[in-house]
Design goal:
Blueprint: E1 11-16, H1 20-32, E2 36-42, H2 45-55, E3 59-63, H3 71-81, E4 86-91, H4 96-104, E5 109-112, H5 117-128, E6 133-134, H6 136-149, H7 157-165, H8 170-180, H9 185-192, H10 196-210, H11 215-224
Parallel strand pairs: 1-2, 1-3, 3-4, 4-5, 5-6
Length: 231
């Protein structure tokens, strides 16, 4: 998603992290970004949920480990009760094991705490625009974690993913690759020269045929199947 234009409303964010220095630093990065507005900050999951209920933001940016209600439980509560709010998880390389649960809880994106601030802003904008965000670094860790948990399987996850996408049409595989890049329906439509409604139909069909809950899960299939260039 490119830089916002003057007529676009700002991306409204609730930020939750129990480490004050991290929270303040993230808030400073986001507040300095054009078209992003931090509407609330919290130190735990319960407070984050309350802020989401109060402000109905575009994004809830949640740390995984927090006192009381952690980021994973908060993700499940927010996606179930406030589906208009996208959830982006703040993670570290030591928290790979939590990502599978965040995926099943409906998280829309994952960003590294130690990543490039530009990636953080781009990820939030992508999710706010109806896309998904999974940085290549996080994607590799996710897939490695899933491979480890599936070590006894007869096929590698890559082979299994390629088998899953084989029944898709050539156009659907193109769309799946663009989902893997984090593009929204409008951006997919622009890239492929089709109308947004057609892109939406393709995305819905892909999610149903792959039997995945959301775009991030579809993006992981795209990564595993080798549809995303440079991965």
């Amino acid at each position: 998603m490119g830089e916002p234009t003057e007529d676009q409303p700002p991306v409204r964010v609730v930020l939750a992290d129990d480490e004050q220095m991290v929270r303040v630093g993230m808030a400073a990065i986001l507040s300095a970004a054009p078209g992003v507005e931090v509407v609330g900050q919290a130190a735990d999951g319960d407070a984050a949920i309350d802020l989401v209920r109060q402000h109905r933001p575009d994004i809830a940016l949640l740390d995984v480990q927090m006192p009381g209600t952690d980021g994973l439980t908060a993700t499940e509560t927010i996606t179930a009760g406030f589906p208009e709010t996208g959830v982006v998880i703040l993670t570290t390389f030591s928290e790979d094991a939590y990502i599978a649960r965040a995926l099943s809880g409906g998280a829309n994106g994952f960003v590294l705490k130690t990543g490039d601030p530009r990636d953080l802003v781009s990820g939030l904008r992508a999710v706010a625009n109806g896309g998904a965000y999974l940085s290549p670094e996080v994607a590799q860790r996710v897939i490695a974690e899933l491979d480890t948990s599936n070590a006894g399987g007869r096929m590698s996850r890559g082979a299994a993913a390629r088998e899953r996408v084989a029944p898709l049409s050539a156009r659907e595989r193109e769309v799946l690759a663009l989902i893997g890049e984090g593009l929204s329906n409008d951006q997919i439509a622009g890239r492929l020269g089709i109308v947004s409604g057609t892109a939406k139909v393709h995305v819905g069909s892909i999610l149903a045929r792959l039997d995945v809950r959301n775009r991030v899960q579809a993006a992981i299939v795209a990564y595993e199947a080798g549809l995303v260039s440079g991965f």
